Structure formats: C-alpha cells, structure tokens
C-alpha cells in the first residue's frame, strides 16, 4: 500500500531510490519479509497471504478485429499493475487520477476498467474536456445520467453507483478570473 500510494506516480528513475528507502524502513521489521528482486514486480495476494508476481495475474491478449484501434488495449505488466490498483480504489470509492505523457494509454486503460465495473452495477459517465468545454455542458452530461430523488436532489439509480471519468482534465481554457469553470463545477 505504501509503495503505490507514495511511489505510484514517480518517474522510473526515481522508483529505484524510493524502493531502496522502502527496503531500509522494512529491513528492521521482524514481520515484513520482502521478496527478492524489485518490489514493483510484486503485489500482495491477500487470499494466499504472500507476495505474488504481477505476471501471475497478467491477462493473455486475444486480438479482436472488431475493436477500433484507439479502443484496443494490449495488456502489459504496467497496464496490469495500474489497472489493478485503480480497480481496487474505484471499488472502495476513492478517486483516481492517471497522469502521464500523451498517447500512453491512460484513457483506454480507464475505459477498460470502467467497462469491467459496469458488470458490478457501476454506471460510468464519460466527460471529455477540450479548450471549448463549458461548465453548463459538463453539468448537463452528468445530470443526464442521474435520477431525480427529490425536487432538488439527484443521485445514481437505485442499487447503482456512478463513476465520472473525465478525460483531458487540464484542457478547459481559463476564464477572465484565471479559473477553469468546468473543473470548478467538478469540485
């Protein structure tokens, strides 16, 4: 948990130093038996109560020619790791923010996770921001998927959960006050 909560967003060159720091903290513990090799290559299997390589849960890729190129997700060890952590956070209703370079697959991975969660009574709301995004349109997109509970109260349909996925959250242009109204609405 500590490895991913503090080190999950580190650049690769910083992960080595962070791992050394983690090992130094836990080397003094009698109960923390760390695996050989890189900690980033393992997860804790809570059912078996042991360290397990990510490769053990890495899915096989089956090509489907009917899936559009930009929706195609070829599972790698990294997508397995980041997808697993995000799924755990989503299930426990924590927010998730993917950061990274353009075109590395953040949106495709998030959409893939949300498709899986739809089977568990989750309704995803997809909001794509651009420089032209306006708060009123963002509000309309979100409210269109909610049910009216009372005159002034909206919520997820009964026995469902809503997850709002915002793509390109940095894109809305600044207004005259230096704020980004669509992002302010989400707050």
Automatic annotation (TrEMBL):
GO terms for biological process: microtubule-based movement. GO terms for molecular function: dynein intermediate chain binding; dynein light intermediate chain binding. It holds the Pfam family Dynein_AAA_lid. It comes from the Eukaryota. Residues 1-55 form the Dynein heavy chain AAA 5 extension domain. InterPro entries: DHC (IPR026983), Dynein_AAA5_ext (IPR041466), P-loop_NTPase (IPR027417), Sigma_54_int_dom_ATP-bd_1 (IPR025662). Transmembrane segments: none annotated. PANTHER family: DYNEIN HEAVY CHAIN 6, AXONEMAL-LIKE, DYNEIN HEAVY CHAIN 6, AXONEMAL-LIKE-RELATED. GO terms for cellular component: dynein complex. This is Dynein heavy chain 6, axonemal.
């Amino acid at each position: 948990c500590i490895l991913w909560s503090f080190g999950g967003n580190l650049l690769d060159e910083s992960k080595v130093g962070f791992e050394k720091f983690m090992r130094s903290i836990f080397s003094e513990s009698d109960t923390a038996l760390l695996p050989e090799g890189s900690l980033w290559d393992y997860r804790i299997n809570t059912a078996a109560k042991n360290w397990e390589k990510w490769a053990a849960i890495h899915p096989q890729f089956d090509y489907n020619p009917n899936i559009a190129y930009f929706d195609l997700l070829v599972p790698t060890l990294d997508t397995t790791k980041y997808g697993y952590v995000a799924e755990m956070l989503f299930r426990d209703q924590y927010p998730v923010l993917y950061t990274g370079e353009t075109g590395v697959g953040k949106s495709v991975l998030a959409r893939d996770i949300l498709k899986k969660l739809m089977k568990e009574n989750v309704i995803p709301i997809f909001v794509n921001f651009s420089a032209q995004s306006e708060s009123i349109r963002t509000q309309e997109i979100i409210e269109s998927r909610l049910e009216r509970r009372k005159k002034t109260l909206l919520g997820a349909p009964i026995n469902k959960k809503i997850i709002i996925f915002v793509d390109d959250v940095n894109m809305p242009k600044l207004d005259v006050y230096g704020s980004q109204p669509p992002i302010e609405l989400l707050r």
